[in-house]
Amino acid sequence: MNKKGILIIISGFSGAGKGSVVKELLSKGDYILSISSTTRAPREYEEHGREYFFDTRDDFESMIDNNELIEWASYCDNYYGTPRKFVENNLEQGKNVILEIEMQGALDVKAQYDDAVLIFITAPSVAELKARLEKRGTESSDIINKRLKRSYEEAEVINKYDYIVVNDDLQKCANDINTIINAEHKRANRSGELKDRLKDEFAELLKGEI
Ligand code: 5GP
């Protein structure tokens, strides 16, 4: 019997610590992370095929034209997108597939996959977000400002997510998300196979009486 995987979308303000939370979550169960394509330059510690597929704008645009992306968005002057094949193959195999993507793409995926679970991660305060971005030191102050402005716009739309989780303590945040996903697996509307089996068993037991 094939358990159906859940498509999990994790978004959050820049600096909320999404990457660390996702890393932690991956160690907690049957999760697999989709690697996105992007046109932004790699950070010093990033590797092609590990954090992202770092592609040219031409490559990216031809992926759009060939319908190879489930969704894509422009974020602070760069393209980001989710390769379709990887996601579809892994969901079919019953894996919980994590997309760590921004809001516009998240809502686009939700429109296509009605049963996707949307989780938004934030730091406890805006001051903390700004401090984390500055401490990370991977972006210029110009880009940090762009990202904070984008976060301000995103704050308006958080209510479209299914869950919001505060990342104050990394372990607790990852545990909270794992608990949410375990509960999602138990939703009655995801349990069609169990329902069908139980009905068959009743029919067998009550043969001749119903
Ligand atoms: P960063 O440059 O900090 O790695 O990512 C910038 C933003 O792009 C983050 O909010 C991240 O979640 C989002 N992002 C990463 N990959 C994708 C993707 O495939 N699609 C979309 N829509 N957003 C993405």
UniProtKB/TrEMBL annotation:
The keyword Metal-binding does not apply. PROSITE patterns: GUANYLATE_KINASE_2. It is an enzyme of class 2 (transferase). Its EC number is 2.7.4.8. Residues 5-182 form the Guanylate kinase-like domain. GO terms for cellular component: cytosol. Keywords: ATP-binding, Cytoplasm, Kinase, Nucleotide-binding, Transferase. CDD domains: GMPK (cd00071). It catalyses: GMP + ATP = GDP + ADP. One of its GO terms (molecular function) is GMP kinase activity. ATP binds at residues 12-19. It is found in: Cytoplasm. InterPro entries: GK/Ca_channel_bsu, Guanylate_kin-like_dom, Guanylate_kinase, P-loop_NTPase. Essential for recycling GMP and indirectly, cGMP. Belongs to the guanylate kinase family. This is Guanylate kinase. It comes from Vallitalea guaymasensis.
